[in-house]
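ok so for the tutorial part 2 we go from a plain amino acid sequence to predicted structure tokens. step 1 is just haveing the sequence, like this:
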Amino acid sequence: MRGNDNTMSSELLIKNGRVIDPANGVDKKCDLLIVDEKIVEVGEETQNLKLKTQNYETVIDAAGKLVVPGLIDIHVHFREPGDEEEETIASGSMAAVAAGFTSVVCMPNTNPVIESETDIEYIHRKARQTRKTHVYTMGAITKGLQGVELAEMGFMAEAGAVGFTDDGRGVQDPAVMLRALKYAAMFDVFIAQHCQDDAIAGEGVMNSGYYSTILGLPGLDPLAEEAMLWRDIQLIKKTNVRYHAQHISTAGSVELIRQAKKDSLPITCEVTPHHLLLTEECCAEYDTNYKVNPPLRSAKDVEALKQAIADGLIDALATDHAPHLQSERELEFLTAPFGIASLECALALYVKALIEPGILDWPGLIRLMTEKPAKIIGVDKGALGKGKQADVTIIDPNAEYKIDVNTFHSKSRNCPYHGWKVKGKVEKTIVGGEIRFEA
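step 2 — the prediction. this is what the tokens look like for a chain of 439 residues:
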């Protein structure tokens, strides 16, 4: 097929798949036609499309598969610049497309910190060179993540930062956080917060309670998360600025979010796979693969998060992909870094946590991994409508496999799910009309 300028156009037909597009209320067997970078037709049968099947350059038979908008992860750590031995934008992007993610959002707590327009442009340039997934980035709220002086939020917003966070640290000073919210309103971006009051958290390395006591490890009280979230909600009441609570982990946080949403405050939140599947008891063998921040909580907290998802309180499922070197993981529990590398098995983990127990169906899961995350970061993604950029993920919902960290495209292997039997596998990832990954 030739375009109007006599240049060759690429054509891709995905036929016979179950198309799930929550943004447009679609859940049915139909075909998807992509020309160049755009979706040009969504039809119930191939015959409804403009050309016959045999005339297409590429045809994918997706019978028995799910055809969904490209998955979006709004919380990843790709470690570049500064810690490229753990992950790079290139290796992280490859891991992302292998996991079905066509868009990811990098956190700014790199070394050096992402705190200027030049830093934002660097991330975007490296991502364009990689040509795998769309890479967005957030800028730091404060210079050096020190919580004292605001970073150059305006310049970073102009350079394409989708939001601001000091992820890894909470902004401790309420006056600084109030100024940040007011600045965010000026540039129509959102503020995301790692909710943790350091005065309460102290030197905690796991959830405070029975297990921290018997293991002799400093506990990190749930109140540290809940106190900062409560404080920030008061600031949102004053400013009415968009606010996103990152990786909430406690039953108390759920109730604070519930009330804030009842009060119609512009607040959103995310949860991670590990806070839905693992509990503090996993730390009993001092395995540092289970050391995360916020820490793994109690079974009661896990159930509260799942109920919140069932109730529609949670706005996004995010991995908080945090790769680390094996040598760091071999340190004792007290000194090992926080974080789990779970990007490449995220979809199957959400299936295990949410679909298999009947908490969500497939459209519900896809909504929290496409449409709603796209709205949070304010990008025109997460849908399969006509004219949209063709970011598409094809999933085999019945494929069973064992998670093998040695097959990860990520540079790091700090993942506690090695050997788990899971269901739901990404078959193909299409970004901008190009097949960027095939299983």
